[in-house]
């Protein structure tokens, strides 16, 4: 078990309550809100975050395999994403995503499979700004006391969607015994910390905390210039806990005081800016503002949100440089700033933070992959559709105990694949397609025993496919088309999904013309140094 998965002492005691509060926000999507993102394998358009998937750096012809983002296991004790269902691509490629393998981690660090529920989210009617008319996100079966929390501003309806794995299981199947034990332990801990004396309803009129929250939320309402779904229509009066998209819970330092624990205005199509007064929400654990039209940058007061756990401002119109304030958030675990107009370098220090999920793709960032990339304890890192320079550093192998998914497609990487990539024993998804990778596939990749999806298409790789890669026990999808491979083991063609088109493999259909293959063979040989970089001649 990786170091990041062990939580104990005061650190766990602090976060267990805010994790429960996060899951009490019943209209929030699962921790990976876009697990159903789909792209067309053949380069057509797909659905990513609901909209704006045709503005990817490099052009629409580089919108290739979807982000198969699953099993995100936040190391604070919440379940990850993996819905076990197939999501059909809208882009015309017939691609499917298959989730699964969701985990729930209890306070002692144990894991158990969590069955899931699909929940329909209203989109405000019709297809607005490219939103899907109907969306579903996975929800995990959680302890009953969590489901008993009823935000006053939201009606939420659960619908059971049987998966292939659970097709014969009744919708009311009981959770596993370990899950029940974890639920009872956590419930007992929360009851022990509850306020001993019932208090009257708390509002901004009688609570300093909620008064500060009132100031922040009213400033946000004033900064919103267009609210087509009228999400903030009931943001009036001192009862901030009744505002739509605002969720309250007992504060960490005073169980008798209520505080604003989460704000979720996802998919609101809101236009405006993010005001400085958001820094007054010092008890905030979850800030979800994705799929809106917020412009400008994140407020300078962001570091005041010292309890912030999840930050999702993806799919907006944010501009400027990388939000450096994220580096000052001591407890943030989930950072999603993808699909914005952010530009410039990305500070290497972001890979030193104990972040579990980092999504910075589909911006205009231009930076060199730092050597400390391997310091990150993240389980998911997505660096797709950026402008990356340099080599894939050998330090990537140091993430072997924690990294589950690494996506760096269409990012201009010009290097070899370092042999240390084979140390990623927990990796399930590796996508480095649409780059300028050269050399051969390292034999060490035969040690990536958890690998399920591997995509190295549209590069300049050559040589023979190592047989050990195609023998990986979980590999179900191996795409290596549009390279210059000259040989493949027979067992590669037996994989459930295999794409070897446009290579130089004798006897296989749909290969490159012979003159292209001969011209490639007459190029000077590629030499890779010990760090995976192209050696200088």
Rg over alpha carbons: 24 Å
Strand order of the largest sheet: 8-9-11-13-15-17-19-21-22-24-26-28
Terminal CA distance reads 43 Å
Query: pLDDT under 50 segments (min length 5)?
Result: 1-175
Task: Write the topology of this structure.
Blueprint: H1 9-24, E1 86-88, E2 96-98, E3 103-105, E4 111-113, E5 116-121, E6 135-140, H2 144-147, H3 177-192, H4 208-223, E7 224-226, E8 246-250, E9 258-264, E10 271-272, E11 286-288, E12 293-296, E13 310-312, E14 317-320, E15 334-336, E16 341-344, E17 357-359, E18 364-368, E19 380-382, E20 387-389, E21 405-407, E22 429-431, E23 438-439, E24 453-455, E25 460-464, H5 467-470, E26 477-479, E27 484-487, H6 490-493, E28 497-499, H7 514-521
Parallel strand pairs: 9-11, 10-12, 11-13, 12-14, 13-15, 14-16, 15-17, 16-18, 17-19, 18-20, 19-21, 21-22, 22-24, 23-25, 24-26, 25-27, 26-28
Antiparallel strand pairs: 1-2, 3-4, 5-6, 7-10, 8-9
Summarize the structure.
With about 525 residues, the chain is α/β, with parallel strands linked by helices. Helices cover about 15% and strands about 20% of the residues. Strands 8-9-11-13-15-17-19-21-22-24-26-28 form a twelve-stranded mixed β-sheet, with helices on both faces. A seven-stranded mixed β-sheet has the order 7-10-12-14-16-18-20.
